[in-house]
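U., I forgot to send this yesterday:
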Amino acid sequence: MSQSSSIHTRIPIEHIINVKMIARILGILLWVEGVMLAASMCVSLYYHEASYKAFLYTFGINVAVGGLLMLYGRNAHNRVTRRDGYCIVSASWLLFTLFGMLPFLFSGEIPSVTNAFFETMSGFTTTGATILDDIESLSYGMLFWRSLTQWIGGLGMVCFTIAVLPIFGGSNQQLFNAEATGVTHDKIHPKISVMTKWIWTIYALLTIVLMVLLLIGGMNWFDAICHAFCTTATGGYSTKQASIAHWHSPFIEYVISIFMILSCVNFSLYFLCMKGKFKRFFRDSELRWFIGSILVLTIVITISLVFQKGYGLETAFRTALFQVSSIHTSCGFATEDYTLWPPFTWMLIIFAMLAGGCTGSTGGGIKNLRIMIMFHNIVNEFKRLIHPSAVLPVRINKHVQPQATVNAVMTFITVYLLCAFIGFTSLMALGVNFMEAFSTVISSLGNIGPGLGAFGPAYSWNALPEAAKWILSFLMLIGRLELFSVLVLFTPAFWKEW
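Result:
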């Protein structure tokens, strides 16, 4: 056979990706979801609800399908390449959503497949957008399930499995990198399994402390647990239709505002604090940029609410702080409908949606580190116009960023905006108004939750066309996995052996 003909010979997919190993790991992950379903079933049983049957049926399906996948992959080669990692992560998030929506369907509490899929994807990706017009009509088991999907999705189900079941061996690194994509990876420990344990320990401690404070603030145990889950995950699902405004409690609003911000800080900085390296925490450039952005937006909106809306100073500050913190951290809780504020504040909200939180946190959006790198790169380009021969590196935390990192950041932001444009155009073609299409796309891609106009914090997204809900669900997924982990699967090169 000639060389040219051999190049074009079809290569079996098994030679490109480790299909059996992928099936085995997906089977294990479905069993992990089964444990989550069992926990929600226990909540239904505790409250004597018939919805326990929906969790029981779904649990059985998860165990059966997971078992079949593990049986198929029992003789798999114990290796996971980068391609395998991308396949596992993308497939696991889809499978978790497909099986996770079954309790809503089996119970009849969300009878539409489109709505059930949207609600579950919004949960696992911690977007927090909902199609429910009467959240409080759901059973306790379903409310707990919505909150639990956000808590597990906050740091990622693959990351969670590595932490609690370190059974993937040498595959941990590839799986972690595929799910925790970002600008840089701060390795706080040489072993990925140990690092994920530390991250989840910090995550759990934040959740427990917040839960105790919410109990002190007047929430009951159930609401405190659910809201602690959704705050530390920066998810935004509430057990009440009015969200946090239901309690009319300044204490609760300040506490949740603080913990939304704390949950959006790079978790490696908390680990450094535990090691006594407090200076690294307070000198971190991204953290200072993030906190500074929240403070500036809060002060500007506070002044606007005082002088243009007649709010009292403390009420204006608390309201502005909560809404800015909620949007900037991509959490999505609400105490007020910010679409009733002066229109110029909407653009500040849009900026917060785009910027999002810090890398290495549960926050969504473009991430502040990328915004910083882009800003410094733009400043350097202006300087090069004056001094063409100057060497002007981008420095973050006094470290020079490699040009490859700068290029990757600029590419990410370009692709991010391109995806937003395609999504926005698609929704406009489906008949969604300009403001609503623009804000829901930015909100979904950044995993924020509320949008503007008819899909602002006071409304659900139920009125969207069904096709729009599927488009936005896809944007939630690629936004949560930071675009490339999913989009790379659609490139021809991914399926070709070099």
